[in-house]
Amino acid sequence: MKNLNFKKLTAAMLVCTISLTSVSCSFSKKDDSKETSEKVTLTKKDNEKETTTAGEETTRKKEKDKDTDSAKKQQKEFDTFVNDYFVDTISENNLTARMFVKNPADYGLNELPYEILQDSKDDYNKKIQEDYDFLTKELKKYDYDVLTKDQQILYDIMEEDTTFTKEYLDIEDAYYMDGSFSPMTSDITSLPTFFAQMELYDKTCVEDYIKNIDVIDEYFDSLLVYANERSQAGYWITDSQTKELLDQMDTFTQNVDDNILITSFDEKIDKLSFLSDNEKSEYKEKNSSIVKDSILPAYTELATGLKELEGTCKKTGALSEYDQGKEYYEYLIHQNVGTTESVEDIQDRLESLLGSSQIKITELYLSDEDIIDEYMDFEDVDIEDPKSILETLKENLDDFPEGYSEEYTINYVPKSLEESLSPAFYYLSPIGAEDQNNIFINNSSDFSDGSLVSTLAHEGYPGHLLQTSYFSKNSKYPLRRLYSFDGYIEGWGLYSENYSHEMLGQNEKVIAFAKANTEAIYSVYCLADIKLNYNGEDIDDVKDFISKYLGLEGEDCQWTIDMLIANPGIYLPYLLGYIEYNDLKEEAKDTLDDNFDIVAFHKFILDLGPCQLEILNDRFNQWLEEQN
Strand 424-427 to strand 438-441: parallel, antiparallel, or no bridges (unpaired)? Predict the structure, then answer.
């Protein structure tokens, strides 16, 4: 996704912050009773649910003998259940299996269909309902207390996830509200780099690759059907979003002979020692023909169909305007963040955070007017040299446990995709290929003054590359790889961005400034998002809010509004996860005092792996007791 340009926003934020310090103070003054309730909502479910489940929780946590024959039988059956569920989930088609495992045959998946289709609303909802019914029934078969520690974590993740699935199923038109056609997150624009980063391990893998790209045209046909259904149901995207998506598609199709789907494949094929020269030539020709004669025409045909839908969106596009749009927005936050906290409580917390971070920024600047330059100097690096940045970051990981991959490949986004992709991004490696780590760098002029050090800390070390490869190398259950909770994942990425200042020896004032700056900027974006997509506030009022705190005007402000409408809830997982990590770290420091070990703290988080923030918080309390 597109990162926030911190260089531009920092300067604007500083000017606005100093002039708004008195306003910030009003945000930060909250009565004690409300502050207490906010802390509870972050880490607990609502009081009513907490009360009704208190006895159940007590029973659940009561120690049982896990070494009896009956207990071991339950553990073995649970392992069989979750491993079978993993295999069943990735067996929908060959491409899905290839996404998650290096060799599908290792899981008994030898003949899978080569099809990528967008399900109809009825078919999709039927699958979701059947999966929900199956999991809720299956989980009840197991005695939680006799499961192993790792099994209990997975059980909790699956059980909690079913509650979010129920939220989705209770929303009649949730199917039409997703981001399938968002210019920032659509498969349409991300699909080329996805195939470009796929490794070709053997001849079977090459054959699978060819067969999978050969059905992209059918996938696009099903997407056009879906787009028309959305339009007819009144859920098509805004004209500005449609135009941006069409521009991206047009730019991509202009590149024919040097298209990334041709050049990346040719480069990989040339390196394969198990293919003869004739086989290499044949595969190259076959791939090139599919790209030129099938995929590029499919992009053009889809673009033609989508253009006909311009003008069919009669709203601003904000979720708050639709029936059950607010419920869908809350579902998105609950699912992606991994929390049951209400949007209203989240808004209260972020308003408080915005106020306190502005006060901190002002205090730091007034005590040292050079702090902005020191902060900017940290980010002032040559964008042509990302490898040296990653290597420098990797050399300064003393505060993190060993066990992550040190291998990675730097790729560059082709010019035809620069406008539609992030300044940098990391692709998840398949199981069995944990050292296959691909980071893409975007050399677009739009990002030439961006924060490359922070960006690579987010995507690389100690961010997603370290986080993902560490857990992949140390996790027992492949199923855990299917659960992606952005509060945990992107919160860690944002935490890593800011931690890079400590890793690379910045002084305490600059570290504090970076933290306050991150919190302030993200708070503004998240609050603007809530105002648009949940509260349904007037767009002009939201523009005034953004301008007031970030100084954005005109096209820049309108672009921000359009981006937030197209991607509801997009930054909340980043910020809420980031807040959680910092809060837990401070609690651990206060509780353990001299016994606090930053490596042990980071190891706890990385060992736990992707999960809902409420599960993270619960396991943290257990970990803290063990440390004492």
Answer: antiparallel
Among residues 340, 387, 605, which one has the least CA distance to residue 493? 605
Side-chain-facing half-sphere of 77: CA atoms under 13 Å: 15
Chain centroid offset of residue 217 CA: 27
Tell me, what DSSP letter sits at residue 295? I
Give SS3 for 441. Answer: strand
Say if CB 493 and CB 425 are below 8 A apart: no
One-letter identity of residue 577: G
Task: Answer whether residue 525 shows pLDDT above 50.
Answer: yes
Question: CA-CA distance, 73 to 367, in Å (whole number)?
Answer: 64
The CB density around residue 334, as the number of other CB atoms within 10 Å, is 22
Phi then psi dihedrals of residue 204, to 5 deg: -60, -40
Question: Tokens representing 270?
Answer: 């040339």
Cβ neighbors of 384 (< 8 A, separation 6 or more) are: none
Helix axes 554-566, 508-530, angle to 10 degrees: 70
Round to whole Å and give the CA distance between 576 and 574: 6
Instruction: Tell me the C-alpha distance between 556 and 422, whole Å.
Output: 17
- Helix and strand numbers (H, E) in the chain are 29, 3
- CA–chain centroid gap for 486, Å, is 4
Two structure tokens written together for 525: 């974006």
Sorted by sequence, the CB contacts under 8 Å of residue 526 that are 6+ apart come out as 350, 571, 572, 575
For the chain, what is the radius of gyration of the CA atoms? 25
> Which residue is it, tokens 């997703």?
178
**3-state DSSP call for residue 562?**
helix
Query: Cα separation of 131 and 129, whole Å?
Result: 5
CA–CA distance, 255 with 268 (Å, rounded to integer)? 19
pTM greater than 0.85 (yes/no) = yes
Could you read off the pLDDT of 16-38 as tens digits, one per residue?
554 444 333 333 333 333 333 33
Provide the b/e sequence for 100-112 (b: ≥16 CB within 10 Å): bbbbbeebebeeb
How confident is the model over 611-627, as pLDDT tens digits? 999 999 999 999 999 99
Q: Do the Cβ atoms of 623 and 149 come closer than 8 Å?
A: no
C-beta of residue 473 within 8 angstroms of C-beta of residue 403 = yes
* Angle formed by the axes of helices 386-394 and 452-459, nearest 10°: 60
- Measure the N-to-C terminal CA separation of the chain; round to a whole number of Å: 40
Per-residue DSSP letters for 387-415?
HHHHHHHHTT-TTS-S-S----EEEE--G
Q: What is the mean pLDDT of residues 544-563?
A: 94
Q: Which helix (H) or strand (E) holds 439?
A: strand 438-441
User: What does the DSSP 8-state code read for residue 334?
Assistant: I
Query: What are all long-range contacts of 265-269, with beta carbons under 8 Å and residues at least 24 apart?
Result: 265/195, 265/196, 265/209, 268/199, 268/200, 269/200, 269/206
Cα–Cα distance measured from residue 248 to residue 464, given in angstroms and rounded to the nearest whole number: 27
User: Per the structure block, which two tokens stand in for 68?
Assistant: 């009896």
Handedness of CA 195, 198, 203, 208 (dihedral sign): negative
Half-sphere exposure of 283 (CA within 13 A, CB side): 28
